[in-house]
């Protein structure tokens, strides 16, 4: 039963970020980028949605809810995953889906290429105020040149999970795991760190890079792009986060050794890094406590927020979204569907499905982190109950507590390149291959070329 539940929770956590669907054509208009579409018209015809792979109980409930609201629409869901090359090939061939699901950092890239329709007219026709339905920084992820290009979904913030058995054995307290106070944090990491023959066996802190490069750079006062989406990776303020990461790695044998131990973690298994006491503290997004909840008889888990340079909780937006490609045959139905699947009632239906699953299979309800402040609050108030484990309840509340401290990664037509180049820069610094200054200069040069190529037309 434990393994069955782990599989269910892990799938739910990961696929909560991917609803998934696709195909082509429908009944409507939409060759001009959306300016001539009457989104107030009654939706009808066939709606083809693409890139909706592995919908879990949450996704299926939302899909069912949206379909039920659009009774005159034949919704066809393609469960394959999003593929950038396939997407552009489909659009070039005229085999255009009405809706595509994609990661938010990629939205602006396709918008800048003229491949997506702006949704402002859609929102106006449906009475949707993006700044009220979603967290502002979530909307910022998909805003470019004053227009919103996608409907966001999900925002699962990171925090720092604490393996209290490791902390207590080392004489470390939760307040010492404070990313805003390196002089306190680094000694605490050193106390928890263990090695055998120069090989790490327990990490004091796994900062989860390169997955969370942006969190560390932005949290320590950096800036990845400017207001226009132009890369700013060579901004001197970006050095603080990278230099702190270097100190964290060097305190634990260096990045190569840290990565080697991390790669051996049985993160979704019975001997995961918390059960095996291979980590004292670890940066993880909100979905991971679901994976650890079946092991609360073996671990003592708490959490603290990631803190920015000024000592306040800090988080970054992340998640997926729905967009209407240029050339979609049924944009009216697509607009209505995106409204229905991201509204409050859809999220409540999803939460009720999740509660039913947990009741059947066992587990603790950690809530849904939807990208919508209203839905998050309703679900927290109505469905997230005390679990009987005070420490785990504290973990859940920690993640809820950082929701209001989010910041966008930045919306840029070179977003994918910027993300990759930042990761390359951080890795080269951590490995000692480049100085921070040189790594950021190189990353900026490559990102700026991509930005210029994306905007020159």
Describe it.
With 457 residues, this protein is α/β, with parallel strands linked by helices. Helix content is 44%, strand content 12%. The chain has a five-stranded mixed β-sheet. A five-stranded mixed β-sheet has the order 8-9-10-7-11. It starts with a helix and ends with a helix. The N terminus is likely disordered.
Compact overview of the structure:
It contains 19 helices and twelve strands.
List the helices and strands and how they pair.
Layout: H1 2-15, E1 45-50, H2 57-69, E2 73-78, H3 84-93, E3 99-103, H4 104-112, H5 120-126, H6 130-133, H7 136-140, E4 143-144, E5 147-148, E6 151-153, E7 158-163, H8 164-170, H9 182-192, E8 194-196, E9 199-206, H10 213-219, H11 239-250, H12 255-263, E10 279-285, H13 288-292, E11 301-304, E12 320-323, H14 331-341, H15 344-361, H16 373-383, H17 390-401, H18 415-430, H19 436-455
Q: What is the tally of helical segments?
A: 19
Strand percentage: 5-15%
Oligomeric grouping of the chains: single chain
The tally of strands reads 12
Largest sheet: 5 strands, mixed
Mean pLDDT: 92
List keywords for this structure.
457 residues, disordered N terminus, single chain, alpha/beta, five-stranded mixed sheet
């Amino acid at each position: 039963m434990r393994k069955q539940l782990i599989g269910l929770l892990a799938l739910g956590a990961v696929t909560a970020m991917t609803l998934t669907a696709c195909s082509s054509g429908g009944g409507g208009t939409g060759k001009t980028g959306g300016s001539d579409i009457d989104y107030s018209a009654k939706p009808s015809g066939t709606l083809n949605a693409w890139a909706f792979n592995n919908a879990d109980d949450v996704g299926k409930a939302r899909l069912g809810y949206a379909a039920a609201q659009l009774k005159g629409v034949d919704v066809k869901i393609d469960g394959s995953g999003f593929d950038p090359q396939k997407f552009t090939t489909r659009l070039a061939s005229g085999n255009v889906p009405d809706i595509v699901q994609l990661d938010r950092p990629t939205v602006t890239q396709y918008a800048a290429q003229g491949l997506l329709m702006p949704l402002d007219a859609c929102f106006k026709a449906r009475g949707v105020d993006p700044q009220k339905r979603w967290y502002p920084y979530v909307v910022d992820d998909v805003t470019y040149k004053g227009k919103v290009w996608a409907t966001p979904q999900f925002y699962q913030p990171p925090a720092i999970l604490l393996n209290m058995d490791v902390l207590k054995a080392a004489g470390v307290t939760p307040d010492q795991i404070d990313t805003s106070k390196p002089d306190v944090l680094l000694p605490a990491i050193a106390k928890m760190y263990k090695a055998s023959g120069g090989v790490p066996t327990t990490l004091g802190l796994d900062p989860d890079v390169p997955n969370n490069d942006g969190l560390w750079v932005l949290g320590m006062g950096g800036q990845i792009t400017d207001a226009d989406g132009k890369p700013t990776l060579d901004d001197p303020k970006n050095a603080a986060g990278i230099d702190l990461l270097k100190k964290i790695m060097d305190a634990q044998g260096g990045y190569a050794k840290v990565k080697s131990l991390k790669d051996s973690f049985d993160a979704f298994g019975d001997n995961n890094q918390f059960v095996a006491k291979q980590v004292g503290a670890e940066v993880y997004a909100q979905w991971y406590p679901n994976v650890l909840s079946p092991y609360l008889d073996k671990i003592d888990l708490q959490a603290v927020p990631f803190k920015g340079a000024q000592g306040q909780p800090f988080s970054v937006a992340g998640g997926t979204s729905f967009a209407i490609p240029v050339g979609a045959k049924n944009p009216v139905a697509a607009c209505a569907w995106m409204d229905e699947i991201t509204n409050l009632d859809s999220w409540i239906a999803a939460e009720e499905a999740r509660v039913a699953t947990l009741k059947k299979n066992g587990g603790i309800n950690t809530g849904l982190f939807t990208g919508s402040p209203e839905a998050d609050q309703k679900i927290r108030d109505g469905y997230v109950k005390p679990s009987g484990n005070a420490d785990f309840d504290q973990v859940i509340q920690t993640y809820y507590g950082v929701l209001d401290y989010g910041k966008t990664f930045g919306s840029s037509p070179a977003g994918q390149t910027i993300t990759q180049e930042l990761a390359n820069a951080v890795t080269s610094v951590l490995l000692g291959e480049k100085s921070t200054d040189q790594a950021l200069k190189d990353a900026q040069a490559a990102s700026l070329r991509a930005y210029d190529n994306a905007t020159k037309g």
